[in-house]
From TrEMBL:
This is Peptidase G2 IMC autoproteolytic cleavage domain-containing protein. It holds the Pfam family Peptidase_G2. InterPro entries: Peptidase_G2. It comes from the Bacteria. It comes from Shouchella lehensis G1. Residues 10-143 form the Peptidase G2 IMC autoproteolytic cleavage domain.
Amino acid sequence: MVLLRKRRVVVLGEASFHWKNRYLTNEFGGLILEPQRIRTYDVDEEGNTLPSYREESVLLPLENPLFDYNEPYVDRKERDEWNIVGMMGQVYVRVNEDVQTGDYLMAINGIGQPSEKGNVKVMKLTKAYNAACGYGIALCFIK
C-alpha cells in the first residue's frame, strides 16, 4: 500500500492569470504604478446600475506597450517548456562590478560581492554595473 501525503506549495513567479510581462516593472521587479481616474457607479437594491457615479484617483500598474489583448494566454503549467522547480527564494540584489552569473555572494556595505562561500547564488545579471549609482542588479537564489 502506498500512502501519499498532500503537500502545500506556493509556485513563485508563476503568472497563472496573465502574461508575465503584461505590466512594466522597475529594476527590482516591482510594479510601476501610475495614478488613474476611475468611475464607480451607484447600484440600486435590485443590482441595476444607476447613472450617478463617483470619480476617484487610484494607483494602477502601468501596462507594457508590448502586451497584446488578442494573443491568447496559456497558463505556464499547461506549457511543455515550463517545469516547477523547488527552491527557497529568488530576490533582486545590488552587486558590484566583479559579480558574474553563477557567483556566490557576500554583502559588504549593502552591495553583493563574489565570495567562495555563501547561500546567495547569482542566477542572472539583470542590470549591468553602473559606476554612477555604484551597483548593478542580479536576480539571485537564496537557499
